[in-house]
Amino acid sequence: MSSIAVPWATLLTSVGLYIVVPVLIAQAIRKTLLSKGQAIFDATIHRIQPWSVSALLLTLVLLFAFQGNAILQQPLVIALLAVPILIQVFFNSALAYWLNRQVGEMHSVACPSALIGASNFFELAVAAAISLFGFQSGAALATVVGVLIEVPVMLLVVRVVNASKGWYERSA
Questions:
Q1: How far is Cα 39 from Cα 34, in angstroms, rounded to an integer?
Q2: What pLDDT, on the 0 to 100 scale, is given for residue 103?
Q3: Are 96 and 117 a contacting pair, CB within 8 Å?
Q4: In whole angstroms, how far apart are CA 117 and each of 56, 61, 102, 110, 141?
Q5: 88-93: long-range contacts (C-beta < 8 A, 24 or more apart)?
Q6: Using CA of residue 108, residue 110, residue 111, residue 115, what is the dihedral sign?
Q7: CA–CA separation, 72 vs 101, rounded Å?
Q8: pLDDT, tens digit, 9 for 90 and up, residues 114-151
Q9: Which of 25, 56, 84, 137 pairs as cysteine with 133 (C-beta 3.0–4.6 A)?
Q10: Distance between CA atoms of residues 5 and 103, nearest Å
Q11: Could you say which residues of the chain have pLDDT below 70?
C-alpha cells in the first residue's frame, strides 16, 4: 500500500467536482425551492424523483459495463470484497438503529441515521478511484463491487427499518 502514489491535487479535484459542487448546487436549489413554499418544494421533489432513480441506475449500469469482465472473471476476489462490506453494512445499520431507539430518537431520525452509519460513501470512492487510477483499475473494481453490494443492501435496510416501525415505536 505504501508504494501507491496518490496525486493529492487530483484527489482534491475529484472530491470537489463529484461531491462538493453537486452538494452546493443541490443546497442552492433546495433553498430557492423552499423560499417559494413547502408545497412547491414537495411537488418538485415528487417530479424529479423518478429521474434521480434513473440516474442512479444509469450510473450503476455504466460502472458495471466497464468492470463486467473483471467481475465475471474473478468471483473469488469479488466475494472477498463483498463479504466484509455485507457484514459492515448490516452490523452498523442495526447498531445505529438500535442505539437511536435506546436514546429515544424518533423513527424518522433513526431511519436516515441507520443508513448514514452504514454507508461506505462508495460514490466518492468510485469518483476518486476512477480519477486516480482509471476505469479499468483494481481500485475501480473494488469500488464497483462496493456499489454492487451496498446499493441493494441499503435498499434492504430501508425496507427492514420501515417494516419495523411498530417495534421501534413501542416503548423499550
A1: 8
A2: 93
A3: yes
A4: 20, 26, 16, 10, 23
A5: 88/118, 88/120, 89/118, 89/119, 89/120, 89/149, 89/150, 89/153, 89/154, 89/157, 90/118, 90/153, 90/157, 92/117, 92/118, 93/117, 93/118, 93/154, 93/157, 93/161
A6: positive
A7: 41
A8: 888 777 777 777 777 877 787 778 888 888 888 888 87
A9: 137
A10: 44
A11: 1-6, 171-172
Half-sphere exposure of 84 (CA within 13 A, CB side): 7
Give the contacts of 109 (CB within 8 A, at least 6 positions apart).
100
Query: What confidence score (pLDDT) does residue 6 get?
Result: 67
The set of cell numbers assigned to 111 is 431511519
pLDDT at 1: 46
- 3-state secondary structure at position 37: coil
Average pLDDT, the chain: 84
pTM: predicted TM-score of the whole model, two decimal places? 0.62
Write the CB contacts of 128 (distance below 8 Å, at least 6 apart in sequence).
11, 14, 15, 18
